[in-house]
Amino acid sequence: MFKKLLIANRGEIAIRIARTARELGIATVSVYTDADRDSLHVRRSDEAFSLGDDPRAYLDAERLIDTATRAGCDALHPGYGFLSENADFAERCAARGVAFVGPPSEAIRVMGEKQRARATMAAAGVPVVPGGPAGTLEEAHATAASVGFPLLVKAANGGGGKGMRLVKTETELAAALERARSEAEKAFGSAAVYIEKALELARHVEVQVLGDREGTLVQLGERDCSLQRRHQKIVEETPCPVLEPEARERLFDVAIRGARAIGYHSVGTFEFLLDRSGQFYFLEMNTRLQVEHPITELVTGVDLVRAMLEVAAGERIAPEPPERRGAAIEARITAEDPEQGFAPSPGTIERLVSASGPGVREDSGIEAGSRIGSEYDPLLSKISVWAPDRTQALARMQRALGECVITGLSTNLGLLDALLIHPAVRAGDYDTTFVERELGAILAGVPNSGVPDEMVAAAAAALVARREMTDSAKRPAPALSPWIAVERASRLDK
To answer: Which of 16, 147, 337, 377 lies 20 to 30 Å from 458 when distance is taken between CA atoms?
Structure first.
């Protein structure tokens, strides 16, 4: 096993990786920019090195590798985002004698270029979403004619919803193409885009895979990540509440086939779109640890960071997938204001109360006094819950969210709570466009039908209390949805 690990990331994922490394007896080294000088992840490692005042320094491959060698590290874990899916970075680490904790560089390269990934998966027998090239406007029009509208213009060398535009008619194509290219260039350093058919009312379902260097590959179950806004995930759950057993097994088989086709090892995630008929189509592969990995860990008992480190050190994995137990849900808490179009909400956290108790896990990178800037992703923490079944998991998540208090800036906590008690979400009847379709009603606080008058009165009282609690933020408190207030009032009455 490795002796010393550089964690080339920040925030909650850096802390998450450091925890497992400590359990394995691996010394840890963190890095930080001036904006992160006082961040919690800096104090959660054995050593910390400054990257300087440039907020983009987490993307400086040479500086990160220099830091790793200067600190005497024999391995580097990239976390997610930043350079985690950069094949050149992985190769440069190896060339300097620092083990890259992740998949082989060629697999990263193949799956990182989306059109090449689609072609590779199609050749392996993996169903792909209809699509094609969009190198020029003429080529884009030709592809659009073959796949039909609506369609998506997507960055060829990125993900996370950046460089992506929905196009409903031919007249929108030219402008969407230009905007997608510009955003892709800024986000990924490449303006290359391509076109995919937009599958309407589809779900986003992904499969976690794990492989070792000897060719053993297993699946660790699926996650439903359909609750999104602007293609950014908000809530994830496992198992998918609508996936039939036969379709689930076919999905697993296809994911393993795809991983085997590229000689994959380490952890990785195959993302699919699942349509209303139960057919699924390959969307992309993330050749790294996912933000939502905790819920897979909760239902399988597998520490995915530990598995990555062990595989990178040459260890074998068990040849059979682990038994999956119960249901798990993750909610992402972000420093954004849903009432203002999810505008970033920088500030200093004045008061912080975290969720805890049976079946609750919190992965956080914040504490009271943490300064939250606008330089990086607004993710503050993730709450994950486990329970024997989905109904209990939903109740547990409601309870956990109700315990959370963050003042000093705006967050999406109110939206999360409203979302998790929405009747459609509780029924598992949602898709990737659900949040954006229903956002106005959710934020307006349209109550469920049949709510007794006394509960509405209790909700009003709870709303006043909530606003008083958030007065310390020195800004108007976002309105609390009556869905939330009614639910919390009903819990107080019991």
So the answer is: 337
Q: Does the residue 492 lie in any domain?
A: no
Q: Is 133 exposed, middle or buried (0-12, 13-18, 19+ CB in 10 A)?
A: middle
Decide the pairing of beta strands 280-286 and 266-274.
antiparallel
In terms of residue numbers, what domain contains 323? 203-423
pTM, to two decimals? 0.88
Assign 114 a pLDDT band (cuts: 50, 70, 90).
confident
Q: Which residue has the tokens 């307006």?
A: 444
Question: 137 or 459: whose pLDDT is higher?
Answer: 137
Active site residue 288: yes
> In this structure, is residue 476 part of a structural domain?
no
User: Cα 32 vs. chain centroid, distance in angstroms?
Assistant: 22
Q: How many independent structural domains does the chain possess?
A: 3
Name the residue with tokens 């380490």. 266
Q: How far apart are CA 265 and CA 126, in angstroms?
A: 19
Looking at the structure, do residues 225 and 169 belong to the same domain, yes or no? no
Q: Which of 288, 361, 390, 488 is catalytic?
A: 288
Lay out the sheet containing 47-50: strands in order across: 47-50, 27-32, 4-7, 75-77, 99-100
